[in-house]
Amino acid sequence: MRPVAVGIDTSAYTCSVAVMDLRGELLSDVRIPLEVRPGELGLRQAEAVYQHVRRLPEAVAKAFDPSFPQMNVRAVAVSRTPRPQEDSFMPVFLVGHAVASVIASTHGVPCWEASHQEGHIWAALWALPPMEMTDILAVHLSGGTTEAVLVQGVGQEHRIRPRLSIVAATGDISAGQFVDRVGNALGLPFPAGPHLERLAEGGEPGSMPLPVSVQDVKLSFSGPESAARRAIALGATPAEVARGTLECLAKSLELWLSAVVSQTGVKGIVLAGGVVANRLVRRSLASSERLAGCRLWFAPPKLSGDNAVGLAAWAAARLSGGPIAALPGRSPVR
Fold first, then answer.
1. Which end of the chain is least crowded, N or C, by CB within 10 Å?
2. How many Å apart are CA 277 and CA 254, to the nearest integer?
3. At what angle do helices 238-264 and 175-185 cross, to 10 degrees?
4. Taking the mean position of all CA atoms in its chain, how far away is CA 273?
5. pTM of the model
6. DSSP line for 11-54
7. pLDDT tens for residues 238-293?
């Protein structure tokens, strides 16, 4: 039987289960998006918990499909909190933790707790080439978070939970909320990211500049959101608004990251989270002259959104005794 590690993540957006062997080969990657009613910008925690209770058994069953090779579960890793902080809590993660605890107890193996944010970072590290740097900046850009996090000892073994330190964050709404709120104002489905990106393809570059609100390492998106709404009210075309929103997002992140690098001196940057899947944002940051002295790694689009892959990778690395980025097997899931 093949020894494996299981990862479980029950975020505010997606119900996820992943299974990985100790060589780092991803055997299962099951994600079931939570249903959001048209016109709404997410779910209340009570509704999200209810949906996870209904969907997680299905996700687990799919992850352990009988057609897969027989698996010997050696450990389970689960997101218990949104971030690795003492005061970080969301009820949705209780569902995943309960199921993970049952799986671990049934198999007589450890259940290791981490955070949703760490899962995003570890998924990126698993998918990217091994890094020679010991310290990196992990930038988490999602619907709930816009933070730059210092990760120390990237190349060290992950038998223990790595320590992360937040060095900069948005002062109001997140990058993902900026995208979703403008998308909602344009009548796009939630989450709006992929729809806004397709809409922006029809907009002329630079046709509708939105204000950028960045002062040193302080970043804000509420002002740009208000400007986008005013443009909509004044009759700007949806394509122009979409293009202007994504260009504003990219420019804001470019200035913000440049300031963070200047403050920390760390020039290796790993970008993860749903916003990182946007091609316009990726291209803008990759070609930025301000960031030319930095080394940027982008999580693959498939691993940018909420998923349990990073948690499974962390558990596999702990069991194998090496760093996540050194796991050799990265075969695509069947």
1. N
2. 16
3. 170
4. 3
5. 0.91
6. -SSEEEEEEEETTS-EEEEEEEEPP--TT--S--HHHHHHHHHH
7. 999 999 999 999 999 999 999 999 999 999 999 999 999 999 999 999 999 999 99
